[in-house]
């Protein structure tokens, strides 16, 4: 948003085009874990349970990108470093990974078995949590374009606040994917919780740093 | 070490064994860590020799067995299906002997109704028993009804693939009950006790709604978090597209031999 005001400046234009390049680079680098894991799977190098490893790797990156996209605002407000220009890319990467994760679950893992999938999605909180997170990021991805922002106007922000619910569901889903309470999903849940709790802080605290600038 | 055994052709017809590498490198043995790769990587410091197994409780003739004496028994090789509660499966050529042999030697009293098993506790050799987050209460304990324990399919395994049990598979002696989920197969057993009351079991203590005492493989009764209708065969060696799921069989395919043990029971309630 702030970039628009200084569009006329030459250095600013240069900066804008490098933002574009960085964004493309971010997508390219962001998709490397999916491509690399897929290639390893094709080469039979994911160990004795390859589908499970692929499925879990994709889910892990989905939650990582979701966390990164939720870091943008606190980072800007607390340190003044703004990565707002890359937030959409981070969010969309989270969506793509969630989509790959669900696709592998439905296809490679469950073999499109309708009865099993229906039972999973309707009866098991573990799967319901994951699916809720996926549906939310799908809606957010579908409305992450200039047309939707114009079209939805003020409601756009309200719609995109659902990302907090997606983060919560994803963190619970990750914890439930293991038989025991484990350190790794717990760590992700704590980070997620801190990022969500930050949103509850009063504006006076949150924007102090921005005001100083 | 190599271990001689008489192949028991009665078991395993038509089954293809899971590769040795996968049987020994994809394990749940939380005493060594939570990852499937941990048991193979972190069990090098475990000493399964010397070893004794105490068999006592409600018996006329309690005994302590030395592992060398157990290894010197006539041993059988049996190719068994192994179905994990996590919905993956293997086929393993176990070497061992029926648990019933030991139980008969100690002469169970009429009052004995159950058999309780106990694993070893050695935090200095088992890094998973030394962690920060709570895992399971040690020792790992399991149990069977006496008639299940006496069933000819129930064995104590002391080897696999023609050699003594690798540490990561439960050296030097473990329980194998092929019609039940793998977690019933208590590893590195130090004590077997006959009781008149149902013994507590580790996973049941941790999450009673997810893991029952019986834990019979049952495609009809789902785990609360996933379906048990199908399973992923481990080590199918086809990458993504070679490892298609296959249907899980009632009692893991051993229904003909064991279903009568549960006649009249509601296996949905007693899961």
Judging from the principal axes of the Cα atoms, what is the shape of chain B?
Answer: globular
User: What percent of residues of chain B are in strands?
Assistant: 15-25%
Quote the average pLDDT of chain B. 95
Name the average pLDDT of chain A: 90
Q: Number of helical segments of chain A?
A: 13
C-alpha Rg of chain B, in Å? 18 Å
CATH class of chain B: Alpha Beta
* CATH architectural name of chain B: Alpha-Beta Complex
Q: In which range does the helix fraction of chain B lie?
A: 10-25%
Taking pLDDT < 50 over at least 5 consecutive residues as the criterion, the unreliable ranges of chain B are: none
How many domains make up the 3D coordinates of chain B?
A: 1
Strand fraction of chain A:
under 5%
Low-confidence stretches of chain A: 1-7
Plain-language structure description:
The complex is a heterodimer of chains A (213) and B (271). Chain A has helices at 2-5, 10-30, 32-42, 50-79, 84-109, 114-123, 125-142, 146-152, 155-160, 163-176, 183-198, 203-206, 208-212. Chain A is mainly α. Chain A has one domain (31-207). In chain A, helix 3 (32-42) runs antiparallel to helix 4, helix 5 crosses helix 7 (125-142) and helix 10 (163-176) runs antiparallel to helix 11 (183-198). By secondary structure, chain B is of the alpha+beta class. Chains A and B meet through helix 4, helix 6 and helix 7 of A and helix 1 of B.
In short:
Chain A has 213 residues and is mostly helical. Chain A has helices at 2-5, 10-30, 32-42, 50-79, 84-109, 114-123, 125-142, 146-152, 155-160, 163-176, 183-198, 203-206, 208-212. Chain A has one domain (31-207).
Secondary-structure blueprint:
The complex is a heterodimer of chains A (213) and B (271).
Chain A (H helix, E strand, L loop, with lengths): L1 H4 L4 H21 L1 H11 L7 H30 L4 H26 L4 H10 L1 H18 L3 H7 L2 H6 L2 H14 L6 H16 L4 H4 L1 H5 L1
Helix pairs in contact in A: 2-5, 3-4, 4-5, 4-10, 4-11, 5-7, 6-7, 7-10, 10-11
Chain B lengths: L5 E2 L12 H6 L12 H5 L9 E6 L5 E4 H5 L4 E8 L4 E11 H8 L7 E6 L21 E5 H5 L4 E6 L2 E2 L9 E3 L12 E7 L6 H5 L23 E4 L12 E2 L7 H4 L13
Parallel strand pairs in B: 1-4, 2-11, 5-12
Antiparallel strand pairs in B: 2-3, 4-5, 5-8, 6-7, 6-11, 8-9, 8-10, 12-13
